[in-house]
Structure formats: C-alpha cells, structure tokens
Amino acid sequence: xxxSSRLLGACFATSRSMTFYRRTLWRVLLMSAGLSASAxxxxxxxxxxxxxxxxxxxxxxxxxxxxxxxQEQALAKEKAATKTASKSxxxxxxxxxxxxxxxxxxxxxxxLRTIPPVTxxxxxxxxxxxxxxxxxxxxxxxxxxxxxLLPTAWRYGDKLSAFHGGRWQQSNRSVPLTGFTYANLxxxxxxQNGQVLALTAGSHGSLDALRMNAEGHRQxxxxxxxxxxxxxxxxxxxxxxxxxxxxxKSATAVPQGFIWHQERGLTVLPPDHVVPRAISADGTExxxxxxxxxxxLLHRHHQFGQLPADLPGSQGGGAFAISQDGKKxxxxxxGKSDYVRGWIWDAMHGYHPAARALYISNxxxxxxxxxxxxxxxxxxxxxxxxxDQHSQLKTRLLRRDAAGQTETVADDGWFLVYAPLSKxxxxxxxxxxxxxxxxxxxxxxxxxxxxxxxxVKPQDLGIIELSSDGQSLLSGNAERxxxxxxxxxxxxxxEVFGNTLVMSADGxxxxxxxxxxxxxxxxxxxxxxxxxxxxxYFASCNAASGVRQNVMLNEKGDELIVTDEDGGYCRxxxxxxxKDAQ
Length: 582
Hints:
This protein has a domain at about 310-390. The protein contains nine helices and 39 strands. Helix content is about 20%, strand content about 35%.
C-alpha cells in the first residue's frame, strides 16, 4: 500500500514495544504440562507408600515421549545451575533508587534522574480525577506542539519527560543537575571520556540546547534572543562539535539546523538543512534531514498522520489530499477487515459518513492503477484538486562534510543509525512494492539491505544497532534478532526480551533481560560475547523491579547498567574472570 513513509516510520518505531502473546501462550501450556507431570510424580510417591500397584508417568509414555521428558528435565536442571552460577560470578557492584539515564562510553560517567514519590492528597486527587499534575500537563502540551512543528526533528519516541533533579555521577565526584524541570531523555550525549555532557532541557515552557563540563559549568548553545526553542541532536566523540535545531521567535518560523563548535562558534545551516542526525567521531561529517516547509505545510503534514486515528475501528491510514488552508481532507483508513475504506473530512462538519461506502480490497491496494483511481474519486468527492494531493512533506537524507558540501543519500530516506568511526550509515528507504526497507551504506560500497533473521520481513526490522566501526550489526524485531559481525551471524535466544537488547559500541558484547517463568517480568540478564560465542546469565536487579527496564553497556561491554524508568538501577562490573570463563 503506497502510504506515507513518515507514517510507516512511526509504525517502524513502535515495533520495539511489541508484546509476546504467542510465546507466552506456549509458555503457559508448557508450564501446565510441567505442573501436571510434577503433580503426578508427587501423587505416585504418596501412593507408593501404601500400595505397590502404582501407575507411574514413565510407564504411560512411549520411548520417544520418555526421552523428551528426560531431555526437558536435564535442560531445566542445567538452566537452574547456570542461573545459580551466574549469581555468584557477577555481583551487583552498586545500586540506587534513581533512574539511570545515560552511561558514558568509558563507563566513568553516569547520569541519574531523581524519581520523587507522589503521595498524600495530591496523589489521591489526581487518581480520582484521572488528570495529570499541572506540570505534567504543561509538558504534554509542549510535546504536542513540538510534534506538529518538528515532524522529523521531534521523532517518534522523542518526548520531554519530567526531570525533578538528578546528578552526574563521575569517578571522583557527583555534580547536581538542577535548574530545569523536564528534558528529552532520548537525546542525551556524553563525550568519549565522559567529561562533556550535552542535552535538551527546560522549564516553564522553555527548551534549550545545553552543554556542560565535568565541573558542572552550563552553557546555552543558542542565545535567548535568537530562538524560542533549541535542542541537541548529535555530538562528536570529544564534545567539541554539537549539532541540533533551533526555532526562531517569529510566528512563521520553521525549524532550522545548526552546528556549534568549541572554537569556531555557532553556524546556522541553510534553511532546508533542518536536523543534524549524527556527527562522525572526528567531527568532519554530519548526517542531515533536509526538507523545505512553511508553517502551513507542517500543519497539513501533522493532520495527514493524525486524522485517520479518530475514526472508529481504525488501525491507521493516511490522506490522499488536504486543502491548502487545512480545512478539507480526503483519505483512507484500514482496520481488521479485508478492505480499506475512504473518508472525507472538513473543519465545519467533521467526517462525512457517505465516504465509508467507498472501499477497496486489501489485494487491490497493490494495484497502482486501482489505488490511484480510488484516491482520485475520493479527492473529487471532497471538492479537492490534484494540487491538494501534494500536501505531503518530502524529505531528503544528506551527508554534509566540514566544508559544507553535501551528498544526497536518499530522496525520501529516514535516518536510523550511524557508525561514528567508519561513517557507515543505516537508513530506511521507501519501496512501492515492499514498503520501508532498512539499507546499510558503507564508505565506498554500494548500499545493501540490512541482514534479517529468518521469518522476519525487512519492513518489520524494528531493532537495529550498529557498532562504532560499522562491523557489527544487531537487527531483528521484538521476537527474533541476529547479530552480524563480518561473515558470521549469531541468533539471539528467543526468550530474550528484544526491546531491551543493546550492543556495546565496539560491537563485541550484547546484553538484554531474560523473562521469569511467567514471562511477565525480567528475571535475569543475558550477556553474549560475539567473538567467542560465550553466553552468561546474571542475577536480576531487584532495585529495578518494574516492567520498563533498560540495559546499558559501556564501549567495551565490561560495565553494565540495568535500570527502570520508574526508578531503581543496578551496576555490574564484568571482569576478565567472566569473559575468560569456560
């Protein structure tokens, strides 16, 4: 279906939070079978004390079934032994009640966010009303505004979160982090040595691109009189070069990219160079999202993605055409049925029910002529023209060197990940036949599709990480993942929670959380040495007992943090005795 790549980009990102219904069902069935077997064995032992006429489970199984039972028992025993050994091998080095947000590459700096308890009358009042706290309500409004103004700068998954204080924990000191009440936790950067911190934060409706040194000195990269909002989106290895976007104070202003350099100062990029996505380790290359837009186009583009969500039973959709004033639109919506239905909307009357009588089968959406005719018919019925069909924001992905020269990577590309040392790039291309396809581009080489696990479609690759040298690539979806290093591929065990998997910057270590027997909460930690293939299972972090757990690794993979967004973290030091253990 020729839908917007931006909408698919959003769908692409949401795959990281998929649940595990199928595997959970199988786990429940297996547990039930295991419980029945255990109960049978217990009852048999009781009967044996009173009667020799005992029917045992072993007597009821075929040879094949008995072999399978013994194999399952042996595996369970081995797993239990592994978990016990793991707990003794890797003790928790430190833990605390805070939310660990970012670990530096060298493992010497850790950014921690305070999670204050909400208690008393305030908590009771908010619970009974179902409303957010006033401060949180203000953050939500700011997030909604940024989502419309910054369709690519404010990517899906980026959002401002409350920041009620925190600290920058270094090897020899702890620097308090105060002066702002919210921050974008998805865009926080440490320099390689952990001595420079860059982040986006603000309070009372402001939003600033900030740089801090190890002593706690804070610097605004964009002067107050120059921009209404500014944000950090990329940084080089030393912290000397930082990229981001700014929004001027004019009522008609649109976002514009900038590069800040410690010696050369601030450079505002050309109007169409909107968001620096990544910067090479040496600061000589910038990956940029580029598009030309005005406020009206940004508003229409926002409506393009938001309108179908209001329809009953809609699971998604898009617009064929939106009027220049944003007051009329026509499009399509899809749900659980075998049909894609049309819709027509105007600002005065809302949706026109008659448009739902127009539909096309899912199979016919693959026929470009039928799809075009379907869109043209809805456009005419809405009183719109061909001009109104060109309301979609068109973006390009660029490589920009230190001299300002640019190379187009893709005319309609979506940035995914970047290798700052080798300058390898993974981006999402648009295919009319298959939809969004992740592509890997290395310097001097032809772009190739990202490797995928068996049974996973390219458009379903929601987990992609690239090592800093570009030689290791983690790819997959929430259920299946592989790591590719050179010509080798290693499959990650199915039981690992895919959305917690992380790879060390050198590409040699992977870690993630492993579920408990009920498949509801993380139980212990999975650790993989890619080069040797050795696997370890470490004790879980009791301080981070929630379900929104994240895992972090330093560059070499010998410092590991497990944390929960609702508070609590544990730190593990993985010594050579673990790496070298047989």
